[in-house]
Amino acid sequence: MTMKRRTALKLGVAAAAGLAAPRLALASDVVTIGAVAPKTGPLAGGSNVSHWPNIKLWSTQVNEAGGLNVGGTRKMVEVVEYDDQTNPGETIKAVQRLATQDKADFIVAPYGTGLNIAAAPLFDRYGYPQIAVTAITDQIDSLSSKFPGMFFTLGSTTAFASDVVNVLSKMRDEGTLTGNRIAMVNVADAFGIELAAAGRPLFEKAGFDIVYDTSYPLGTQDLSPVVKAAKAANPNAFIAWSYPPDTFGLTEQAVIEDLKVEAYYTAVATSFPAFGGRFAAAAEGILGAGGVNPDSEAFKAYAAAHEAVTGAKPDYWASATTYSSLQVLQQAIEAAGLDRDAVKEHIRSHSFDTILGDMSFKTHNNNEKYWTVGQWQDGVFHGVASTGRDGAKPVRVKHGWS
Amino acid sequence: MDIMIIGLLLGGTYALIALGLNLQYGVARIMNLANGEMLVAGGFTAFWFYTAGQISPLLTIFIVAPVAFALNWLIYRIMLEPLVKRAKTRGQLEVDSILATFGLSFVAVGLMLAAFGGDYFNYSFLAKPVTIMGDTYAQNRVAAFVAAVIICAVLYGWLNWSRSGLSIRALSVSPESARLVGINTRSLSAVAFALGGAVTATGGALVSSFLTLDASAGIAFTLKALIIVIMGGVGDIRGTIIAALLLGVVETLVASLIDPGLTLAAAYTLFILILLFRPQGLFGRRPT
């Protein structure tokens, strides 16, 4: 069998064989961890920042420490990776393959809300716990009752929208936001549409006046009409429920148009190191989705290890949560063994010590402590609002673009 | 007025994206589905030169263009020429080249992932406002537009007034008769394909100064280019330029006056209308 595989590898016949070939050790010595997420396709840019590097970091660290402690014996971790090309059909096939062919002991949750939900029935059918990270939805209650092994770590849509409203309301109370005028735009994709729908009534309830409200298609190559129109509406605050390419595109146009607002918010990718690198001084004061407490010792140690192992910096949001979700999985395996039902039960009933602080899933399988809004302050993206995490910084007003 | 200018700037970008494909499809008869990857590769190169050595993308294109030309020439000679030789009809070549270049696009994405990683890449180049007739525009877009105009003019002039250019046009109009009048169709097809690749990669280097790209972003550009080439008429440079500008202006008009959410709908409506009333494209010839 081994010979066969090696020959196949030499011939370079099948990529799948290549993935399986390194598994030469006896199955009982290792814990096989399956992973499927985009390496190509529209979500690859995000998953290659927040998702894959953490799997590499975690497995490297576990193996350097001698492996997972399963019932007193140390077992090395072996990761089998698949690229789903940001295609839900491929995600499902890969989960199936991981479960039946690769006989993975555990599978890391996929990347992105849609892909996580697409894979949930299969995780459920094969009995795997699914500790989802990048799945932000208001369906947490119904999903976790339908799929009891599905856990949520990053929060709900409404929490994200309402904390943005809270941040702005607070700025208004403090007098740093001098008016009620909000320009709100969103990417016409599930994530943006859901957030805009959640945000609209919340803004109105808080007494804000939405003076510009529009959507634009995913992949729009020129966002200058959007920013020009937003500027013409003369808003006090600009809110964009955006995805990575448009987060960059909108901000570049805002700089060029010199959009004068006291609060400027873009959603996904604002927390990426590439964003701070790209806009440098102009990024100062920009609000965005997510956040961490970058001053905590745990995060600092994590960021240093991330850079040492993967050669890249973690982002200031989902990266640390992805790593934490793997810590949860590790602690549950070490406490409950390789029995998947026992691991699920353990995750539901215990509290875990992660780099973000304690994490538990006692109500609706949902981790209720997470960061919702962050802000670039002095070159670092600090969390400024959360649902119960420590270390939030006071919000600053946005002063121009240089 | 500012809407027209924004639209033209966007149209210039689209022209850069689509011109190369037109040369490859219209002249070399290769429906190159890896066109977008070549664009992203050009963008990567510009990004790399800019972040490593602060070299302006406007200079990088003088490196990108010849390298892309050589690379595409090799791709044609090694990978596509066997297909051309064995194809009995144009239809068969089209099917074969679509399959082959579709595969090539995966290889290209894989290579770029391995070489550059899957992260988004962008950089700040000329991201400053410039005032034209009282309105502000991004300098990098204006620069790309000017470059697009120059590239289009040079290409158009070359195709119309130089001997090799005329041969390429002859090849595009009638490959069979071109051989009869002593045009070396094989080597000329390779040149046209390589030239198309060079134009695309140059376009990629230019658009990377204002678009955020990643290793697998290519397919979106291939699709846009395909629409523009078909709207303009296969094999006609003028058609591609007009169609690109038209698309840019229509998208911007809709985004500014109606709703940015409808730009895609507007683009495809325009596409359908053109296909309905001029199925051969704006400047295409009716098949006889």
From TrEMBL, chain B:
The lineage of its organism: Bacteria, Pseudomonadati, Pseudomonadota, Alphaproteobacteria, Rhodobacterales. The chain crosses the membrane at residues 6-23, 30-49, 55-76, 97-118, 138-159, 188-211, 264-283. Its main location: membrane. Keywords: Amino-acid transport, Cell membrane, Membrane, Transmembrane, Transmembrane helix, Transport. InterPro entries: ABC_transp_permease, BCAA_transport_permease. Coiled coil: none annotated. GO terms for biological process: amino acid transport. It is found in: Cell membrane. GO terms for molecular function: transmembrane transporter activity. It comes from Thalassovita mangrovi. Belongs to the binding-protein-dependent transport system permease family. LivHM subfamily. This is Branched-chain amino acid ABC transporter permease. GO terms for cellular component: plasma membrane. It is a multi-pass membrane protein. It holds the Pfam family BPD_transp_2.
